[in-house]
Amino acid sequence: MTRRNIVENVLSNWASLVVSVAVAFLVSPIVVHSLGNELYGAWTLIASVTGYFTVLDFGVNTAIVRYISSSDAQKDDVQARRVYSTSLALFAAVAAVLLVVSLFFGFFFQSIFKLYHIPRFYLYAIFVLSAIDLAGGLIFSVFLGSLSGLQEFKFINASSVVVALLRSIALVYLLKQGYGLLTVALLQVAANLVRAACQYWRIRAGHPSLYFVRGLVTRDTVRLIYSYSVYSFVIAIALKLLFYTDSLVIGSMIGVSEVTFYAIPSTLLDYLEKLIWAMIAVLVPVISVNESTGRNCGNVELYVAGTRYSLLVGLPIVISLFFYGDDFIRLWMGPEIGVRSLWVLRLLSIGFGLATSQLIAHGILKGISRHKGLAYILAVEALANLGLSVALAGPYGIEGVAFGTMVPLVAASLCIMVYTCRLLQLNVWRYLARAYTGGAVGLLTALLAVHFIDVGADSYFDVFYKSGLVTVAFLGAALPICLSKDQWESLFRQIKKVPWVWPD
Length: 504
Description:
Elements: H1 3-52, H2 60-73, H3 77-105, H4 109-112, H5 120-149, H6 153-176, H7 181-206, H8 219-253, H9 256-292, H10 296-333, H11 335-340, H12 342-355, H13 359-367, H14 372-423, H15 428-452, H16 460-482, H17 485-496
Helix pairs in contact: 1-5, 1-6, 1-8, 1-9, 2-3, 2-5, 2-8, 2-9, 3-5, 5-7, 6-7, 8-9, 8-14, 9-10, 9-12, 9-13, 10-12, 10-13, 10-15, 10-16, 12-14, 13-14, 15-16
């Protein structure tokens, strides 16, 4: 893959994410206020419970990306078909089990969370629809994983954007007409079916050598996939615990209505993580190719550069959220949610600020099939998060849950950093100096800028204007340190190629 292709794929991922954020910005207040805190909290709980079931992919999806990309680099179409066919067969079986379990578990959902004010059958129907969506998602993830391994990010994002826009327009219209949570669940199922159909069409049209062959579903391929995916499975379980546990702890120990005050700031930081991963995901196939062709020194440079770029993109957003995020939520969702979510957002921002800079380590470890240590670290983090959140939820409320998430997140990020440096035979202190110096200088400069800017904003313009000043201060200090001479020259060459910037 050329540098131009990488940049185009990254920009494609970012464009898709920007559209998703914009849609969420416009649609989320309508959904929250149409459903109300109680019903929206119930929907969040259903998503949290059913979200745990996605670990039933057993990490196979990451193996699909790994082996499809390496098979494509080696022009081994038969091996690609083996992985594709076997993955489809495995997920079809797992999806059937998921549906059976969901039909049983969903019946007791109302009693477990004491949602007696919502009819049992209504909750059960929504729960089953969410399970059907997840079961289909497991099967359809083979299409997504295959296209990712083939570096078809532009098509993935274009089709996702179109489907998301159509779904959102339909959702707003139906909610305004008085339809409720059942409609939200039905639209989600329909949107994912359409997205999967688009991805399947692209595979058949653009990569005709990749198709299902029953005879290529073999035990050897199953063993190959699971030799890689067993630790991806542990990682998936850990990430699900990290992402969904907080809502479940709050819903069961504090109250369902309190979930909303935690979910909104958590969603903002989830978007930040997606923004950084949109850049890293493009590099995972490149990392796999480097490893399979013996270019391990290229992965060392990717680790350093990936950390720098993650900081350049992520830290200005983290700083802005820390100081102006509560005002944004107040303007976006209403005064009550803005006030209640202030310290949840600030505590989580600290943890995510460091964690997102190490997402490149996740990509490298998965790309070189050395993610065993990552699995153990994330598993310990998930258990620590659960234990601290339960211990602190009672005396300190949702802020205690946020603190119980932040501390393990910081500790795990440091452990991942040390582990990755050891595998790449890179001195930790040298890595810190090369990767974090620019970000640290930018952070100090941005904090100094905040000192001279009034904290607090009364309008969206105020929020974005002050956040923009902080970002300019950060980048003005960090960019000269983070970009080498060659990178500056390459950037200027790319600018010169744009006719409206540098006319002939």
